[in-house]
Design a protein that fits this description.
Elements (H helix, E strand, L loop, with lengths): L10 E12 L2 E13 L5 E2 L2 H17 L3 E5 L4
Length: about 80
């Protein structure tokens, strides 16, 4: 698969740091498994992982968290 952004690089397994904002809550997830383009650094996260992160963001917003940094923990 070629990178959809730069059209040159080949994404390879790596880690990403993602920032999600939901209803006033900002969550930063470190060490998220992702495919990372070797050329431009674009990060691609699996749909299942994305769903888990979005659920965590919703829960954080409901609990009143404003800013939090978390290390990604696999299911």
């Amino acid at each position: 698969m070629k990178c959809v952004v730069c059209k040159k690089g080949e994404p390879k397994a790596g880690k990403a740091t993602l920032t999600l904002e939901k209803d006033g809550a900002t969550l930063v997830f470190k060490g998220v498994p992702a495919s990372v383009c070797a050329n431009c650094g674009e990060e691609y996260v699996d749909g299942e992982i994305t769903a888990r992160l979005l659920k965590s963001a919703e829960e954080a917003a409901r609990s009143g968290i404003q800013v939090e940094v978390r290390q990604y923990v696999p299911a």
